[in-house]
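Incident review: delayed structure delivery

Summary: a single-chain prediction request sat in the queue longer than the usual turnaround. Root cause was a stuck worker, restarted by the on-call engineer. No data loss occurred. The affected request and its eventual output are reproduced below so the record is complete for anyone auditing the incident later.

Affected input:
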Amino acid sequence: MTGNRRMCGRRGLRWSAACAAIAALALASALIVYARTAHASTYAVYIPLDDPIYKELDTLNGLGLLYSYMDTIKPISRIEAARLVLEAERHYELHEQGEDGLEDDDLARPILRAMRAQLHEEIGWLEDRKENNLPNLVHPLERLELQYVYSHGEAREEHINQVNGANINFNEGTPLLPNNDALPTATGSNEIARASSWAGFGSFLTLYGEGAVAGPFTRSVSGPPGSDARRVQPIDAEAVVSLGNTAISFGQEEMWWGVGHFAALSQSDNAAPFQALRVQGIHPTHLPWFLKYLGLFRWNAFFGQLDDDRTFSRPWIDGQNFSFKPLPNFEFGFTHAIEFGGYNNDHYNLSGFMGRASGLFTGNPLQGNTNSRGGVYLKLYVPKWRNSQFYFEILGEDNLTKEVPYVGRVLPFLARSYQGGWYLPRLTRDGLTDFRIEWAILEPNYSQHSDSLYWTNDDRLMGDPMGPNASQVDIDFGRWFMMKCKADLDIFYTERAPIWRPQINVHKERSVGGTLDLWTLPGPTPGTAGWLGDVKARSGFEYVHDINFGNSGSLRAILMLSFAIQPSWKSIEY
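Output delivered after worker restart:
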């Protein structure tokens, strides 16, 4: 058994090196083409993942008005969102003239109007062709959000530390409110305030940030061991230099990779953002030479460092995401990430560091162990089936603590998890009602490792919030009302099993529940000189049988109310 495992490990590393080499080639090609076109620059201000702009873009994409929107890499910049608005408007005008055969899309009109109001400054730059020659600007308040959260019920958790076995430590954040940047909340009432602003200098340097004050204001903030339970927390805080279509940034930034709607297999905003150096494309483009046949191309790469609450304190992490759209109705991409180093796991020289960081030469685990994961995702659009979207993602990890199968001898990793779904934007022909079904199967080795190189940051999972050895099915119905408010009803079922051998009084965890989400398009707020306001709300219940593998159940509930404003003033020039 030991010999076979070692052989699998060597083959896995060879596959990993091959995939990393392909990724490095694509990245080098991208940098060449970007370097050749880096004659102009603009301000790259990234949009927080809780902003309604993403829901508005998803709706326009479902209506068939966006051809170049690639949502498998988020966040996107405000200037990219403005470009997409102009693209959707052009296609909507063709529809109005009866030139493209689209359905009746009365819903698109109020969404485009709302997005023009949200991005009026950036859209003006593009229409006047001034985005590459901007003055120094300061925008002291981009968006302010006030939120009330009432939470009830026991949180999921996993704490395993075994010698040469499973290792992972995480706690769930707010029950029924995942992907919330790990903002600290407690049972009962909580209050949250989020605000963002930005400044631009020389038409190429951008400073932007979003901060939050979170937790119960009437009592102190507390959290599970290992969590960062500060009341005041930065969420996004970066300095960005844009060179042509390339943005180079350093700081904290939310990330969402892949095709998942309710959860992301690879990178999500379930955990707190970590400090990293990032390089990414601002707008989709084409690769040079014969690679142009891969179609539209978006990419993101980062190099950062995680928390210190683990045996190998402050390990390094880097990753890459390459997304391609060779056909108008087909998109695919690759993700790769690796953890390495950390306290007492760095007995290597500079070449050993570079080999591990690139994934090409991971060396001897005794000198410095690594944990890699990577995957492939696909998305297929079928316009004849009311703009149906079918999507699928597979993610593997090189955890060698157990003998587990390869992914069909295609991917380099031993343990594989799956996610897929079907989104029907036009359950009714007018697009006012939509439907989605999404599922996920998470392998027992998902996010855990034989040492402390597991995929968490500050005690929160960085991918799917369910954690290893779990599965989930979501069925969602959405309906628009009065062309300005949408309700989404999500009904879900989950299962989670221990990742160690069953012991006495250890049971499989099962749950069933549902959430109702309401949100409104941003619109003028009375008495505020044209300031935009939008409202979000969530209510939900879930019953978890044998929570955390014990013999007790938990009824969990959530109530969230949110109001946000966006000032109408233009940036201050100086």
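Verification: The domain at 2-573 is CATH 2.40.160.130 (Porin).
Action items: add queue-age alerting; document worker restart procedure.
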